[in-house]
């Protein structure tokens, strides 16, 4: 089974698939950039600076530290609300009826998250731990196959539907109601949703076959304590200027805990 991206994604020229050189070195900064289906029309993208743990022909492993400054994409008129707080008919509107997007500053809260990006796969794997360090399971975020630009940029698009996998291997689907909302209100068509569903099955098969992204080594991995939290300078050009003396932050994304999550929900 091979993956198929559910819709075209606007990307700059010169991108390449993950798993191809040049590779980033451990500790270098990568900007993870989530784009939407309507990026060409409205712009706006989620930008999250993180550090390279490992990159080679198998894929890319990254560390997003807690309290990292990020750029979030919000609907105009709903800037203070997260995506899940916006009514579905507005959040999932077809591009012809959708509201414009604005960039707002935020931060990743919690203890940080390890993200594993396997080459030629339509997902990333996010590793969970509790506050006391116990492994809690994997979060599989369904996404476009990832594209690299140089060694500083990584592009993808979130597909709403996700999987959670317990340490015992119990697999559950997450946010099926939101995927249905995206279809009902016209953001995606039935073909796109069918491809996302097929990619979910591909992710399940990868886990069950022992894909390296689920290797036990990542369940005990810890970040280099010498790595500082990336600064706001890595968001230069992605946020509008803020008034002097104000932080401009409107909220935080992530999850309380030693290793948390805050998957983009469009």
TrEMBL record:
Residues 1-22 are annotated as: Disordered. Pfam families: DUF402. This is DUF402 domain-containing protein. Residues 104-210 form the DUF402 domain. Keywords: Hydrolase. It comes from the Bacteria.
């Amino acid at each position: 089974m091979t993956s198929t991206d559910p819709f075209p994604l606007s990307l700059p020229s010169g991108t390449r698939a993950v798993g191809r050189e040049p590779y980033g070195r451990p500790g270098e900064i990568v900007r993870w950039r989530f784009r939407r289906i309507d990026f060409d029309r409205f712009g706006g993208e989620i930008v999250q600076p993180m550090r390279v743990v490992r990159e080679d022909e198998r894929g890319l492993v990254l560390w997003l530290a807690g309290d990292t400054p990020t750029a979030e994409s919000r609907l105009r008129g709903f800037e203070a609300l997260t995506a899940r707080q916006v009514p579905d008919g507005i959040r999932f509107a077809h591009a012809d009826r959708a509201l414009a997007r604005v960039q707002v500053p935020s931060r990743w809260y919690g203890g940080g998250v390890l993200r594993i990006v396997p080459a030629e796969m339509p997902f990333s794997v996010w590793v969970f731990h509790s506050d006391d360090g116990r492994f809690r399971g994997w979060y599989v975020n369904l996404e476009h196959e990832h594209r690299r630009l140089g060694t500083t940029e990584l592009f993808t698009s979130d597909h709403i539907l996700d999987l959670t996998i317990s340490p015992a291997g119990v697999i559950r689907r997450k946010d099926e109601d939101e995927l249905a909302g995206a279809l009902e209100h016209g953001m995606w068509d039935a073909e796109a949703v069918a491809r996302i569903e097929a990619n979910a099955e591909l992710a399940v098969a990868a886990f069950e076959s022992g894909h390296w992204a689920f290797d036990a080594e990542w369940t005990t991995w810890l970040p280099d304590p010498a790595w500082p939290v990336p600064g706001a300078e890595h968001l230069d050009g992605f946020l509008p200027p803020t008034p002097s003396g104000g932080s401009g932050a409107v909220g935080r994304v992530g999850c309380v805990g030693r290793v948390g999550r805050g998957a983009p929900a469009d």
